[in-house]
Amino acid sequence: MSENCLVCTQVTKSYGKKEVLKGVDLTIEPGHIYGLIGRNGVGKTTLLSILTGQNRAGAGEITYNGQPVWENETALSALCFSRELSPTILFGQNTLKAKEYLKSAACFYPNWDAAYADFLIKEFGIDKNKKICKMNKGMMSLVTITIALASGAPITILDEPVAGLDVYMRDRFYALLLEEYARSNRTFILSTHIIEEAANVLEEIIILNDGVVRLKENTQDLIDSCLYVNGLDEVVDRAVSGYERLNTEQMGRHKMVCIRLKPGQSFPTEQYRGELTVSAVPLQKIFVYLTRQAGEENGYASFNDRT
Ligand SMILES: Nc1ncnc2c1ncn2[C@@H]1O[C@H](COP(=O)(O)OP(=O)(O)OP(=O)(O)O)[C@@H](O)[C@H]1O
């Protein structure tokens, strides 16, 4: 069961008095592309660094292939966490060159693919002799993507890989990722805030919210399980009674309710033909509804509503 799985059991983490992770349970299975999504500051980077033994959990356990990850060289060499690069390190500028990062990655990862790294460097136009502090944000992202893809690590984690990339390069990255995935069947975990465009790439969505995994589900199943039901107030209320409501938007005598179907549940769209409009919900909206905090249920505050 645990063969080549990365298993996280009841992991907690606090920084001072701030409890970021409150008991995370998560199993990463081989041969999938996962998307880790969550609001700013929810603890995505913290969780990813703990999963890969780069940060210590407060409590709980992380195992790879049944063995604890912490200070376990065999497990760690199978896990690549290609972090976002920063133009500054400690108290100064990051004067390391791209080639120095690539060289240490080549030493660390036993499955490092030098020919593939060279292909990506050429493809992305990376100047290997350029210092990180002299690179723009997009170029730094391309260095981390190169390390991640060329690492050959069975479980490869990319933290906000498309940050700073223009739409062409984001598209190129997704295509390269899918190509490598098809070729190697490695497991990838991506954290991203650009949810809608990643939806076609991510097989499974993991939503981290309020310190725990709020949801882990096949992306298409999640999208298929949510529906907007739109129409006259009383008809909508009648139609959606008994369904989980994720959101309600009132527009005069009309309303639009987002419902979430439970496994095996369906909505009788035909029965309401001519009375109600039933449509798909964008993944980004599903994410917004599922990660709202107390007090945010009524949507966003408007400057026009000030008293
Ligand atoms: N080394 C640290 N010391 C103190 N607090 C930290 C440290 N690292 C992270 N935090 C805090 O922990 C919380 C979670 O941070 P983290 O970077 O894991 O979130 P995130 O979900 O990756 O955020 P984002 O989406 O904005 O990148 C934040 O409030 C952050 O300020």
UniProtKB/TrEMBL annotation:
SMART domains found in the cross-reference section: AAA (SM00382)
Annotated ranges, domain ABC transporter: 6-235
Signal sequence interval, chain numbering: none
Annotated Gene3D superfamilies: P-loop containing nucleotide triphosphate hydrolases (3.40.50.300)
Database matches in PROSITE patterns: ABC_TRANSPORTER_2
Pfam families: ABC_tran
CDD domains: ABC_DR_subfamily_A
Top-level division of the source organism's lineage: Bacteria
SUPFAM superfamilies: P-loop containing nucleoside triphosphate hydrolases
UniProtKB keywords: ATP-binding, Nucleotide-binding, Transport
Descriptive protein name: ABC transporter ATP-binding protein
Lineage, uppermost ranks: Bacteria, Bacillati, Bacillota, Clostridia, Eubacteriales
